[in-house]
Structures are given as structure tokens and as C-alpha cells.
Amino acid sequence: MKLEKNYKIYRNIDTLPVWYWDKIQQTGDVRWLVQTDDIEQIKETEQLYEIYDKIYTEYYDYFGISSDLKEYLNAQRSITLMELDIAVNNTKSKLSLLERKKIEFSTLYGNAGNDIDKLAVSISRYFKVDVDLMKISTKRFYNFLNTLIKENNG
Known about the structure:
The structure is a single chain. With 154 residues, the chain is an all-alpha fold. The chain is 61% helix and 0% strand. Helix 3 runs antiparallel to helix 4 and helix 5 crosses helix 6 (138-153). The radius of gyration is 17 Å and the shape is globular. The mean pLDDT is 86.
């Protein structure tokens, strides 16, 4: 189903600001792909999940990921896809399974990952550049981060 309005939508890691990427990763809410001041007004998300899946694949293809991060992201993705299935197909019988998956995820990963603001500070200090999370693309941010890690770890 298409979005009810003709919104501008981030469609790739070259244009998606990393702040929105992080919001989607933390919340599973793909409405952050829409360029609007009020995501609460967006009700239709099926098209957004399809776009998110393409962006996620693009990110994976470009950066690759460690096995630990891959496990973490796949668990997160599994929850997001189950939420989509429940919303689109009205399969309320899966709500308890979803809740169990969320609890397992929280138990396994807690607040896994690094705080994106702390990463931005590290990048800013190391490269002596201003990192505006609302403007820097996901691709550029993770290129900076990967370079910082490589230059400091080997």
C-alpha cells in the first residue's frame, strides 16, 4: 500500500542522515525514512519497510559486518519484520511471540552498540571535522568510523 501523501523519502545510505538510521535501528520505526516534522501522522508503513529492506541490504553490501553485529542486526530485523506482519496482516496471535522476542533481545543485547553521539565526538576529534548527525549521511559516517577503527586497531 502506498503512503497517503506524496512524501520525500530517504532511499539509500548516501542520503539518509545517520541520526535517522540510528533511530530506525533503536526503535524499529521505519517512519524515520520520511522527510517530515511529524512522523506520527504517517499510518501506512508497508512501502517504508520495503525501502528500509533495500537500504539495509545496501548498508550490508557496502560495509559488511562482523558476525556479532550481524547476529544483533538480524535479531533486530526479525523483530521489525514480525511487527510489520502483525500490523499489515493483523495477526494478533503473534503478539505474545513478538513480546517474547523483544524480551530475549533485550536480555541478550541490552543497550548493545555504542551511543551514536559518543561515536560522533570521537570522529570529530580524530578527523577534526564537524559531525552533524542530522546531516551526515549514514555511508559517510560509517566510512569515518571504519577508518578510525582501522587506523587505531591495526
